[in-house]
Design brief:
This protein has helices at about 10-20, 35-45, 60-75, 75-90, 150-160, 165-170, and strands at about 100-105, 115-120, 125-135, 140-145. It is α+β, with helices and mostly antiparallel strands.
Length: about 170
């Protein structure tokens, strides 16, 4: 397992436990989420290549990449985020009296399906619209092409707020 400076061991275990675990399709058992999460975080945080994870006695970089892709396809991160928001709600740690929505352009050239030129910002990138609660904790987000206007993104972003939280906001 790779070391990570982002999460404690307890937090790594929590996240790994709440992400979908694939069933092995071969005779050998699949790596656990906990075994792969540290390496995935290392690549995402550092921008290094997946093949940089290829070391003896560790899962390959391709294995890490496949697990990340599996989590994305299974909506694992979204489900995990909703679960964490529900936990915070039960503990009374969400301040839902005031929430706000805003959009921003993230400069990017790598993803042709979500990048375009924004005349307002005079840059090429991806538009992100986010709803946050009073303390700035994100409740939902929407990603679109860089030339998208903030206005039309507001409704889909609000609609993505988990229903339990939306009832309390209204």
């Amino acid at each position: 397992m790779y070391f990570t400076d982002v999460l404690t061991d307890e937090q790594l275990e929590f996240v790994a436990k709440h992400l979908p675990q694939p069933k092995a399709q071969t005779g050998r058992p699949a790596y656990t989420n906990l075994e792969l999460l540290g390496g995935i975080l290392k690549v995402l945080r550092s921008g290094s290549r997946w093949r940089d994870l290829d070391m003896d006695n560790f899962p390959s970089g391709v294995t890490h990449w496949r697990r990340l892709r599996y989590w994305q396809r299974q909506n694992g991160f979204e489900d995990l985020w909703v679960y964490i928001l529900e936990l915070l709600l039960k503990e009374g740690r969400l301040e839902l009296k005031t929430s706000s929505i805003d959009g921003t352009l993230i400069p990017s050239f790598a993803f042709k399906d979500t990048t375009s030129y924004s005349g307002k910002h005079h840059k090429t990138g991806t538009k992100v619209s986010i709803v946050v609660e009073e303390n700035g904790l994100p409740l939902s987000s929407t990603v679109d092409i860089g030339s998208a206007h903030d206005g039309p993104l507001a409704i889909p972003t609000i609609q993505k707020i988990p229903p339990k939280l939306l009832k309390l906001i209204e």
